[in-house]
Amino acid sequence: MIYTTHILFASILTLLIIGKLPISPSVEPLQAIFIASLGSLIPDVDHPSSYINKKFWRLFSLSGGFNSHRGWTHSFLGGVMITAIFLTYLIYTKGKVHFIVPFFIGYCSHLLIDSLNPSGVAWFWPSKRRIGIRFIKTGSFEESMLQIFLTIVLFTMLLIDVGLIKVG
């Protein structure tokens, strides 16, 4: 999937989950969306032409001879490891450790939405077995339709959150 699909899906999933957790007073919804969006882009550091590598001049790139796209960074274990690194950074910089939750939600959302791709995801790396539904190719018409749907859902959720749409 392309980066905008990841950001949209991470934003929706974060808004759905974050309000149900006891940390919600510590993290504002827009902060959570921003952190989750960042988390949703991180798994693609293993691809040289990914959005995150292009925007950060491959500063964080893990692409190279020892790694393949949708390898360890596209696994649950990779998510735990990178989230632990982010937590260490937050502790070291005296940042909000509560940001770890939206970051991990964003990371996992990337794996979930990539599971719709024909390539699937190696959720249980180091096992090479890829798991997925496999019906939306990256950059396809179907992905464009998914983006439109996700945009409508996110926009509606935000309108409900600010009180412009009443539910119930």
Task: Describe it.
The protein is mainly alpha-helical and 168 residues long. The chain has one domain. Helices cover 52% and strands 0% of the residues. It contains six helices and no strands. It has helices at residues 3-18, 29-41, 51-55, 76-92, 100-114, 141-161. It is globular, with a radius of gyration of 16 Å. The model has no long low-confidence stretch (mean pLDDT 87).
Structural class: mainly alpha
Number of helices: 6
- Output mean pLDDT: 87
What portion of residues belong to β-strands? under 5%
- Rough shape? globular
The residue ranges in which pLDDT falls below 50 over 5 or more consecutive positions are none
What's the helix-strand series? Answer: HHHHHH
- Quaternary organization: single chain
How many structural domains? 1
As a percent range, the share of helical residues equals: 40-55%
- What Rg is obtained from the alpha carbons, in whole angstroms? 16 Å
Number of strands: 0
Amino-to-carboxy terminus distance: 34 Å
Main beta sheet: none
